[in-house]
Amino acid sequence: MELYLKLIDVIVPVFFVIGIGYYLGKKNPDINTDFITTFAGNVGTPAMIFYTITTTGVTLSVFTEHFIY
After folding, report:
1. What's the domain count of the chain?
2. Which of 17-21, 27-31, 58-62 has the lowest mean pLDDT?
3. Is the pLDDT of residue 22 over 80?
């Protein structure tokens, strides 16, 4: 049962964002997506990487050992 809750925890936000995109695409098909793409690439991706590194419990010594060769 715990596995299903974790699965729902991950899948529901993904489909929520997909639904928002689908709705906005149907509402206004001529929407300019340059801002969204630039924002996701310049802000969203680095924020996701930073969040992942800080919440996984990676220590500085492990980080330097594996990522700074």
Report:
1. 1
2. 58-62
3. yes
| Lookup: tokens for 60 | 């500085």
Per the structure, the complete domain to which residue 24 belongs is given by 2-67
Residue with tokens 């060769």: 69
Q: Which residues contact 24 (CB under 8 A, 6 or more apart)?
A: 31
* Reduced 3-state DSSP string for the chain: CHHHHHHHHHHHHHHHHHHHHHHHHHHCCCCCCHHHHHHHHHHHHHHHHHHHHHHCCCCHHHHHHHHCC
Residue with the bigger pLDDT between 1 and 69: it is 1
